[in-house]
Amino acid sequence: MIWVWIALAPILGGLVYGGERVLRARMQRRQGPPLLQPFYDMFKLLDKRTLIVHAPHALLAVAHFFVLWFTIAAIFLGWNLLYIIFLHLFAQLLLIVAGYSVRSVYSHIGSNRELLMVVAYEPILILVAVGLYLVSGSFEISQILKMDGYLTQLPLLFAALLMIVPIKVKKSPFDVGEAHQEIVGGVEIEYSGVFYEFLYMSRFLEYIFIYSFVYLFGGESHWLGAVLVAGVFLLVNLVDNATARVRPAQMVKIIYTVAMALAVLNLAGVLL
Amino acid sequence: MKFFTSFRKKSPWVLHYNAGSCNGCDIEILAALGPKFDLERFGVINTGNPKQSDIFLVTGPVTYRSRERLVELYSQIPEPKVVVAVGSCTATGGVFRGMYNVEDGIDRYIPVDVYVPGCAASPQLIIDALVKGLEVLEAKSKEIEKPFKLFGAIETIHNKLSRLGMAKKVEPHAKD
């Protein structure tokens, strides 16, 4: 059963992404695209002529997607949280190398920003894992999901996680990595056709990745987890519609001062 | 594949290029993409990246400075692709017709599929043109489409290197 879910993970993420586009449209009082729009886009991309800059560049996008899929599989199978975080970091590094491997300046800037994003959110993700460990006594997701009361013991850590969700799903105010108006999508810029599709689908998997961290705070109760995910989903989209983009340096500064302080305070409170 | 062809018209991604327009048509395009006219309900995304777009929305008569970019952007869009010329300027040169720094219309450089009249073209007309363009897009094959004129090569004019065709204006239309 769990293998079916793993196989369907990109489709699940696509539905989330489609739902998000509808939700954002409704927030702006417009009709918005159909729910299945991401899949229409994917089918259309299969029908386009593909332009390849050079083979490793195209291949790194495919590798990025499959490593990310493996990460999602590890989450669904309930493996070690630290292992999952570093696996995700590896997928991210593949994308960054891909961005540096072509001569497009925008691609390089995109890679730089992608690195800055990793620098910003990675410590918080690890602190979240440490916080969950301190409460449950284990890094294994299957163990973490058997315990309860994360939200009461780690409220500030949850707030810190909330701050890095927009970075991961590339939403304002922290969408510096994509930034369509300035750097035209960053690392995505030189991809087209089938290979762009892999990046498009890996975006769906990123949604599942970061929202599963939110889900972990629900602990044993599936209902609490689902409510948390739905609430964070709404909040992130509301903030996305209401705010402008910050500069990359500002993003790192905000995360390192506010989110880091919240996380460390909470961990200190748990430890003492 | 035949199955995927039917999805072309469900997700047209748009590349918008201003070839020396007065910004009137660009504002109307943005209005069409905005909440009131909501082009996104047809699956339209304004990508801004030629390699990922299907529909090329061009505004403005082609100025000397912009023609090289126009051709370059056109040839970077992977097939199948559709060109929609927005506004009178793109069709005939409009109010700029006959000016010293302007080519009269984009169809001297790239093949155009849909013309939108109007100065500035209204958002309703732009939406109509996009929907018309989708029919063209679905009928197209994946054959490579070339611009009428390329600026890739280099020629020598008066002992100076110049991009091919940049030094002289293209021949005017037969009956001007």
UniProtKB/TrEMBL annotation, chain A:
Bilayer topology: Multi-pass membrane protein
Alphabetically ordered keywords of this record: Membrane, Transmembrane, Transmembrane helix
Main localization (coarse): membrane
TM ranges: 6-23, 58-77, 83-103, 115-135, 150-167, 223-239, 251-271
GO cellular component: plasma membrane
Localization annotation: Membrane
InterPro entries linked to this entry: ComplexI_Subunit1 (IPR052561), NADH_UbQ_OxRdtase_su1/FPO (IPR001694)
Protein name, as recorded: EchB
Organism expressing this protein natively: Sulfuricurvum kujiense
From TrEMBL, chain B:
Pfam family, one: Oxidored_q6
Single annotated GO MF: metal ion binding
InterPro entries, sorted: Complex_I_20kDa-like, NADH_UbQ_OxRdtase-like_20kDa
Domain NADH:ubiquinone oxidoreductase-like 20kDa subunit: 22-132
Cofactor: [4Fe-4S] cluster
UniProt entry keywords in alphabetical sequence: 4Fe-4S, Iron, Iron-sulfur, Metal-binding
Record carries keyword 4Fe-4S: yes
Family annotation (NCBIfam families): PRK06411.1 (NF005012)
Family to which the UniProt record says this protein belongs: Belongs to the complex I 20 kDa subunit family.
Name under which the protein is recorded: NADH-quinone oxidoreductase subunit B
Species annotation: Sulfuricurvum kujiense
Taxonomic lineage: Bacteria, Pseudomonadati, Campylobacterota, Epsilonproteobacteria, Campylobacterales
